[in-house]
Prior knowledge:
Elements: E1 2-13, E2 18-26, E3 29-35, E4 40-46, E5 51-54, E6 56-61, E7 66-67, E8 70-71, H1 76-85, E9 88-95, H2 103-117, E10 121-127, H3 133-146, E11 150-154, H4 165-178, E12 181-185, H5 189-201, H6 210-213, H7 216-233, E13 236-239, H8 245-256, E14 261-266, H9 267-271, H10 296-307, E15 313-315, H11 347-356, H12 363-377, E16 395-405, E17 424-434, E18 437-441, E19 444-445
Parallel strand pairs: 1-4, 1-5, 6-9, 9-10, 10-11, 11-12, 12-13, 13-14, 14-15
Antiparallel strand pairs: 1-2, 2-3, 5-16, 7-8, 16-17, 17-18, 18-19
Helix pairs in contact: 1-2, 7-8
The structure holds N-(aminocarbonyl)-beta-alanine (URP) and zinc ion (2 copies).
Amino acid sequence: MSYDTVIKGGTIFTPTASFVGDLAITGETIAAIAEGGGLEGEKEFDASGKYVFPGFIDPHVHIHLPFMGTNAIDDHASATQAALVGGTTTLIEMICPGPDDEPRAAFEEWKQLAEEGACCDYTFHLSVVRFDDVAKNQIRDLVANEGVQSFKVFLAYKGALNISDDNLFALMQMARELDVTITAHCENADAVDLMQKQLLAEGKTGPEWHEPSRPRCVEADGVNHLCAFAELTGASVYIVHTSCAAALDRAIEARRRGTRVMVEAVAPHLVLDKTYAERPDFEGAKYVMSPPLRDAEELDALWDGLADGTIATIGTDHAPFNFRGQKEMGLEAFTQIPNGIPSIQERVDLVHTYGVAAGKIDLRTLVNACSTHPAQQFAMFPQKGALAVGSDGDLVIYDPAFFSTFKHAQSLSKVDYCGFEGMQRKGRAELVFLRGCLAAREGAFVGKQAAGQYISR
Length: 457
Ligand code: URP
Ligand code: ZN
Ligand code: ZN
């Protein structure tokens, strides 16, 4: 029997094992996997000496993002092409409406933009900023009829995106009833607001003051707060972009009390420390995100959390704002610097270089954190996140021997800098397939425009 496409002789990572063999795709679907090989196809790709991974899933991405008085600079074409060349075949974008916007209209707006531009597959977490009767009814409808299975709350960003405790409680009760997940940005919004005002009044205006304005205890407090509400309501929660041991500890304690809590780390927190945000001549603004980059010791705490399973997933929190003209909005005050460190293209190579090749995590942890666990947590498994017969033909032939440095010149995102410029890079997604079609080759996008599909969950 001959298949459409056969990937030959690579080390294949199925959900339960890894072995050298062949993998066959027919149409958009994985049709056969044979340990030892022996499959034949009309098109054949040699993967000997390479890994064959399931297509990676980024569980935390911003593309269309009106935020802090400006708009993120990528569109769905640029962000998803950057994702694909980095090995990411599915992403979960945060829909971030403003406080007056209706959830249904926001869902339609974001979905239409993605339909017009996305080159990889996608689904959404819907931010809940208002929770009146109109919003409640629309949210129920989106869960029942549009396959929305996860929501986002901001405990940070006072006066902009943050949710009141009344609304948080009611939303989490509804989430429990509907069996959907609440993802949450956890920082105490009032504490951050007060610290920011105090620092600015003292003339501390540069990007190096961003971290002191929202120290570790502020994040740990936010996690504790969310977990208390999860304990009260029984809702399942997912803490995004956890940056430090203190926050992780609060999540672990809550889990020991029986609360359903999952933890995400994001690529910038795993490889950059706060000295980047302290770089002179406003260069530090490139490294302003929230929660902020921390002391170097926190990076090890995050890698340890991944290695021992307390952290389940690795996303990016890709939030692309140009240095020129956008980050520069905060030249007079760090509170006006749009938050975000883009990494949608670099995520898997960063995790491979600074996690696997550095001996901090193994390959199975990389596959789980960057693909399988996001699929399982967000109701896409085994359609996504698995090399298995019947799963979508999303896969990456990964060359672990590739050696280079990260360079903005190779970035497909529209953002005007790379936060990892000049850092060592070990490994590359050599070939990337989306539902059986070749979408990226050696760092170039070779797929179809707007071929991405919405995943109704
Ligand atoms: O700094 C960040 N994280 N920017 C994007 C918005 C958010 O908080 O996720
Ligand atoms: Zn956030
Ligand atoms: Zn985010």
